[in-house]
Batch of 2 targets.
Target 1
Amino acid sequence: MSVAVYLPTEEKTRWWVERLAALMPGRDVRSLRQVAAPGSVRYLVVWRPRPGDIAKFANLRAVISIGAGIDHVLADPDLPPGLPIIRTTGRDLTQRMREYVALHVLRHHRDMPRQLQAQRERDWHAIVVPVAPNRVVGVMGLGNLGAAAARTLADLGFATRGWSRRGGAVPGVETFAGAEEFAGFLSGCEILVNLLPLTDATRGILGADLFDRLAPGACVVNCARGAHLVEEDLLAALATGQVRQATLDVFRQEPLPSDDPFWHHPAITVTPHVAAQIDPATGARLIADNIETFDATGTCDDLADAARGY
Ligand code: NDP
Ligand code: OXD
């Protein structure tokens, strides 16, 4: 059984090949670019594979996403139907996302951009904000990452809401389910965090209609996927003040092109898709364990539902 690895750069690919080979002695682990016998490859470990790459391997048992999202695998039009897709999750990823969400929600809550502007102007200007229990924050997506982020915000004292397809209980969080409860979830929401997977149902969800339903002057944190956001609608909502500030970690095109207006927009904070990167050492361990478990049993906890899209 052999394992092939593909990341967009050969340097990163080599790094993962070395780590996985060390953790799976007896398995032939190599870069997809160096596979001589495609028929021997049973597992493909990928981040943003090129269209057509996966279909070259006729005897694959599963594709492993180096990440929680599987949209980059499903984007391949030649993906063989029914091929199992395993995602990579884990405590480190959740911990990092909790940190990122807490940081940016608190920043918007305390209006740090305006406070920093006051400092630049040597203006002793005290910005008075409501206490957290009087601040409504909403988290879209209550999976591994969204539920943990929502719990963290609730622990900080925010009036926290969460929205997902099926709803369900998250301690300290008021939950909303499905399309019928979406308007109620958004109404009065002052800081909105997006942690949905990218699917046909969620593409473009951060658009004009959603922005209009938030509290006036709301802030938006998108740490899921760039294609959730309708970029022109965000710029328009920032221009009217309906949205006051946005933090964007993900973009339609990554890296964000150097001439993109987001880079220098005064109300937008750009981070380079770093909200929750897989920790390299523990990530390789998780992937190796998932491959061994799947190989032995035909399933594993991180098996995604490819038909559903996440
Ligand atoms: P999960 O698959 O664990 O959870 C997805 C959640 O979204 C579930 O609560 C699901 O609801 C909900 N959902 C899916 N579709 C809909 C819909 N149409 N309407 C309402 N709710 C919906 O995902 P994770 O929490 O692990 O990750 C979420 C996303 O975060 C990833 O897909 C990835 O894109 C992004 N990500 C970004 C990172 C970064 O660094 N910026 C790092 C890691 C991930 P239900 O369970 O009821 O179906
Ligand atoms: C992921 C990501 O999906 O890093 O894990 O975006």
Target 2
Amino acid sequence: MIIKPEIQGVVARSAHPIGCEASVQKQIDYVKSAKPIKNGPKRVLILGSSSGFGLAARIALTFGGSQADTIGVSFERGPSEKGVGSAGWYNNIFFKQKAEREGSKAINIVGDAFSDKVREQVIEAIETHFDGEVDLIIYSLATGVRPKPYGDGMWRSSIKTIGESATGATIVLENDSWQQTTVEPASKEEIESTIKVMGGEDWESWIDTLINSDSIAPSCKTIAFSYIGPECTHPIYHEGTLGRAKVDLHQTSHALNLKLANYGGGAYATVCKALVTKASVFIPAFTPYILALYKVMKAQGTHETCIEQMQRLFSDKLYNPQGVPVDGERLLRIDEYELASDVQEQVSTLMGQMNEENFKSVGDYAGYKQEFLQLNGFDIEGVDYNQEFDFEELVSLKP
Ligand code: NAI
């Protein structure tokens, strides 16, 4: 069989295993050549470790100077009669192979991070492989649903505005088309459900679980990722349902910081740059901003993807011997290049010019689409996409 990209709307329905391996390798090569992480953690738990920021953090901490051992939790699909499986499935497999080859432990737990079963598996893995303690917990789940306790249904997130509706364009990757979109205001229940899914409650409950099982090492830190963005994106993000959930996450970071202070550690909500990931392509009316941002930051030489962001976070900020630099709201910022005033001035000029006809030339659509394809193992230099796969061989690969 030959594996081709299949996109439905903004969702990838196929993934290329060799391309995923090449993409993991490319990230490893980057961190090996970048400024190394000094005084970094040795035993790291990553919730949401198979793609985006979580995978990049795992690669940075293993290969970028800290030589960490990692336990990664993710929710991914392997090959079956329904298809070849998800990119994250293969990222897990190839990350583990490469980490073990260099002497690092890499334990993959594939299952629902909201479930008790996965919590038990994680605690057992910490006991078995980490001498019972973790030095860093990274909370990087991105999902649209969270099960309610006692099998009582699901909370579902809604990416909506609060108060007024907002209009903008959504670009459908499947057919490269620009669609004018109106995002309607959320109901009170939709706001509350989004906070349940993407806010801080589950992060806090993970840290409580680890405190209760005596799994927190001295100086243990925890981080979770957030986004704020410039004013032009606020109606759909920062002042919308997702932003409300992120504010909840920021507040949780303060509560967790107090809890971890007992161990000499700390908790930080880390504000990242806008990037193409499996999760972010879902945000309606957001793509024109990313297209303009990519164009400006690439021209300026300040564009970063997840891997550059994570290596810089650990080498310059979280393990800075002078202390963790935070802003007035105690947020750890790695979005400073995105929010620089000269970048934002140029971005708003481009956004003012961008329309249905010219978005591919005014914005960096080629770069956006390429990054999306690469997340799924396609369009990566040096990979032979005409290579035949033996399905049984794919099935035999285990995370
Ligand atoms: P992603 O979709 O690339 O990764 C999400 C990870 O969560 C995957 O490893 C997936 O397997 C895992 N996951 C999802 N549901 C799960 C479940 N029930 N159990 C176990 N694992 C599960 O997403 P991305 O973009 O890396 O997002 C991570 C965090 O970063 C999110 O909080 C997001 O809001 C935040 N962020 C993203 C930005 C962006 O532009 N992409 C910007 C700033 C923050």
